[in-house]
Amino acid sequence: MTKTKLKLVIGITSHKNTTLIKGQLAYFKNIGYKTYLLAPDHPQVHEYCNHEGCIHLSAPLEREISPFSDFKAIIVIYKHFKKIKPDVINLGTMKVSLTGMIAAYFAKVPYRIYTSRGFSALTETGFKKIALLASLKVISVLSHKVICISKSIKDNGIKYKMFKDNNTYVINKGSSNGVDLNLFSNKNINIDSKNKLRDSLNIMQNEFVFGYVGRLIDRKGINELYEAFNLCYKKNNSIKLLVVGPVEEIQLKKDKNIITKLQSHPGVILTGRINHKDVPLHMSIMDTFVLPAWWEGFGNVLIQAAAMGVPTISTFALGTQDAVSDNFNGELVPISYVDELEKVMIKFMESEKLREAYGKNGIKWSRNFEPEIIWKGMDRIYKKQFV
Description:
alpha/beta; Rossmann fold; seven-stranded parallel β-sheet; six-stranded parallel β-sheet; 15 helices
C-alpha cells in the first residue's frame, strides 16, 4: 500500500536550475506529496518555492570543486534530512547530487534517485575529468534508481559502467521536465507581431532565416554554425542567421574571435539574452532551426522549435539525437562536419516542401514531451518503493 503524503525532495545546484523543474513541484504537491526544494539561498529560489508551494531547504552549494565547502554542504544537507525524514529524494546536476547522495546515505533516506542530465566529464581533461567521473560513480552507487533524460545518456552510462541497466530509466521519449506546449505554439503568434519583429531586426520578408537559441558556447556548435552559414551566405546573400542567447566567453576556446566574426557578418543578427516568454515569437520567424551541438543532456530547445512547427537540423550527438526524429521532423549530421552541415542547410533552404513536411511532423513529435507525461513517469518510479 502506498504511503499517503510521501515527502519528496528535489535537489538542484544553482538558482538558475529552477528553469529545469518549472511546474514540477506544484504538480507533485497537487497529487498529494509534501514537497521540498534543496537549493542554495537565492531570491529566484524563494520565488520558485512561493509559486510552486514547496518548502525550501537551503544548502551552501558551489558549482566548482571545493572540498571544504562541499563537506560543509554535506553536513547541512544531512541535518535537513534527519529533521524532515524524506521518503524520496531526486537530485539532478552534479554538485547537489554528490553532496546530497552522501548526506542521504548517512541519514538513511529510504529511496534515493539521481536524474542524469549528461556526461560533461567526457569533454573534460586532466584532474577535473577524473574528479567528475569519480563523483558520478559515487552518486550512481549511492542511488537506488537513475533517471536519464535521454536514451543516449542511458546507453553511454551503461557503456561506461556508470549505471546498471536494471535500475536505470528513461521516461517515454526523454526530457527532464517536458516542454511547455502551451507557450511554444503558433496559436499564440499573430502575423502583426511577426512582421514587427522582422522589421525591428531588419529582416526582409523575402529573406530566409536560419535560427539558433541557446548560450553561445563551443559545445553547442556555435563555431560550426557560423562556418556553415558563411558558406551558405557566399552562395546566397538573401539569408539571415538569427542567433538568440547570451555570450559565455569563458566557454569559447575553439576560436577566440568567434563573437567578433558573428558581430561583423552582414547576414548574422545577435539578439543577446531575451525573456523566455519571447522565445516562441523569435522562433516563429525562423525557417529552419539549427543546433550543431557536440553534446546535450537532451536538447529541449529542439523540441521547442518542433512545437512551433519549425524544421530542425542537429547532430548525431549525445542528447540531440534523442530530441530530433531523424528524417521525420528534421535531419541529423555528424558532429563538427561543417561541409555536411552546410549541405543540409542548403537542402532545407531550397525545398519548401521538405520544410513544410518536417514542420507539420514536428508538432506531432513535440506531443511526446508534454510535462505531464514526464511527471507521471516520475510518480510511477517514486511509488515503486512503497507499493
